[in-house]
Specification:
Layout (H helix, E strand, L loop, with lengths): L3 E4 L6 H10 L1 E4 L8 H7 L5 E4 L7 H6 L6 E4 L9 H6 L3 E3 L6 H16 L2 H9 L20 E5 L3 H11 L5 E5 L13 E2 L2 H7 L2 E4 L13 H6 L5 E4 L8 H9 L5 E4 L19 E3 L8 H19 L13
Parallel strand pairs: 1-2, 1-3, 3-4, 4-5, 6-7, 6-9, 7-8, 9-10, 10-11, 11-12
This protein binds glyoxylic acid (2 copies).
C-alpha cells in the first residue's frame, strides 16, 4: 500500500524525485509554472504527503480541501512563511523544510549581490554595451569598498552568520547584528549584537537575512530607511515582504540611501513596469539565493526524506521535520 504524494512542480531535481517515485505513488503537477490554486485544491484531496515550493500557499482552505490522511507537508525551502503553521499544527500535519543545506549557497549569493551593488557591476557591464565606456576614468563607476566598513546583519541565523564570516575576509572593520538572542557563533567574526536602530545608524552595508514573520513584515519602511546613512547599501535575500517596497523606491530615488541589492521583492516575479527596474542604483535578481546546482539537488533529497520520514514513521536523517 504505497502512500500518495503530490509534487507541485514537474522540474524538481532528480534526487528527491527518484526517492519518492521508488516508494510512493507520485502525483506530479505537469506544467512548469506554479500549480494554480484550483488545481492544488483538487489534487491535494487524496494524498498522504505534499512536496511543495515557496510559491505554493498552504493555508486553511487548502488543508480543508485535503483529506484527513494528509500527514506531511514538506517545502523545498528554508522559508516557511507560505505555510500556515498554526493550521498545520491544529491538524497534526508535520512540516518539513530544508535549513542548513542551503546556507552556503545563499550566503554566497548575498555576497555576490552585495558586491554587484556596491561596485556597480551590472550598471558597469551595461555601460559597455551602451557604448558609454570611452576610456579608463579616475572617477567613473566608483562605489564604496568593503574594506574598513561596518556591516549590519539583520536577523543573524545560519545564513547571516555565514555571510558575516565571508565578509570578514574582505577586511571589514566591524560586524553588527540583530537577533532575539546572543549568537555564540558571532565570536568567530567579532560580531556585536545591537538594537536595530543602532545597526541602521552605524552600518555602511545592511544585509537582511531574517525570516519573514509577523514581527519582521515591513520592518524596512520610510522610518527605518531614514535612520540609515545616506551612503548605506541595503541588501535583501530573505523575503520581499520584510520591506515596504514603495518606501524603498522613494529612498533610492531621493538619495535617502545609496543603493539596494534585492534577491527578493513583491510581487515575484516583478512586473516589468515596476519602478525598481528603472533605477540604476538597484540590482535585482530573480530569487536565486539557493540556486547552486548541488544545493538544489540536496534540497530535493531532504524534502523527499522529510516526507518519507513521516509517512514511514522513521526519524528523518537531516533535518527532522519542523517540530511545532
Ligand atoms: C528560499 O527563499 C528559501 O526559503 O529556501
Ligand atoms: C534562516 O532560516 C537561516 O538559515 O539563516
Amino acid at each position: 500500500n504505497r502512500p500518495k504524494v503530490l509534487i507541485t512542480r514537474p522540474d524538481i531535481p532528480a534526487g528527491g524525485l527518484n526517492l519518492l517515485k521508488e516508494q510512493c505513488d507520485v502525483i506530479l503537477w505537469e506544467k512548469p509554472e506554479p500549480i494554480p490554486r484550483f488545481a492544488l485544491l483538487s489534487k491535494i484531496q487524496n494524498v498522504d504527503g505534499v512536496y511543495c515550493l515557496l510559491t505554493d500557499k498552504i493555508d486553511e482552505e487548502v488543508l480543508n480541501a485535503a483529506g484527513s490522511q494528509l500527514k506531511v507537508v514538506a517545502s523545498m525551502s528554508v522559508g516557511v512563511d507560505h505555510l500556515d503553521l498554526q493550521a498545520l499544527k491544529k491538524r497534526n500535519i508535520k512540516v518539513g523544510y530544508t535549513p542548513g543545506i542551503l546556507t552556503d549557497a545563499t550566503a554566497e549569493l548575498a555576497v555576490a549581490l552585495l558586491l554587484s551593488t556596491s561596485r556597480r557591476l551590472i550598471e558597469a557591464n551595461r555601460a559597455i554595451y551602451k557604448g558609454e565606456w570611452k576610456a579608463w576614468s579616475p572617477t567613473w563607476m566608483c562605489g564604496p569598498g568593503l574594506s574598513g566598513s561596518t556591516v549590519g546583519i539583520v536577523g543573524l541565523g545560519r545564513i547571516g552568520t555565514q555571510v558575516a564570516k565571508c565578509l570578514k575576509g574582505f577586511n571589514t572593520a566591524k560586524i553588527l547584528y540583530t537577533s532575539r538572542s546572543i549568537k555564540h557563533a558571532a565570536i568567530q567574526f567579532g560580531g556585536e549584537k545591537v538594537e536595530l536602530d543602532t545597526l541602521l545608524e552605524r552600518s555602511d552595508f545592511i544585509i537582511v537575512t531574517t525570516a519573514l514573520t509577523p514581527d519582521t513584515r515591513q520592518m524596512f519602511n520610510k522610518n527605518t530607511f531614514q535612520k540609515m546613512k545616506k551612503s548605506a547599501i541595503f541588501i535583501n535575500v530573505s523575503r520581499g515582504d520584510v520591506v515596504d517596497q514603495p518606501a524603498l523606491i522613494e529612498a533610492l530615488k531621493n538619495g535617502i540611501i545609496r543603493a539596494a541589492g534585492l534577491d527578493v521583492m513583491t510581487p515575484e516575479p516583478i512586473p516589468l513596469d515596476n519602478e525598481l527596474l528603472k533605477l540604476d542604483n538597484c540590482v535585482i535578481l530573480p530569487h536565486i539565493g539557493s540556486a547552486a546546482i548541488e544545493t538544489r539537488e540536496e534540497m530535493s533529497i531532504i524534502t523527499a526524506k522529510n516526507i518519507m520520514a513521516v509517512l514511514k514513521g522513521v526519524p528523518a536523517e537531516m533535518p527532522s521535520p519542523l517540530q511545532l
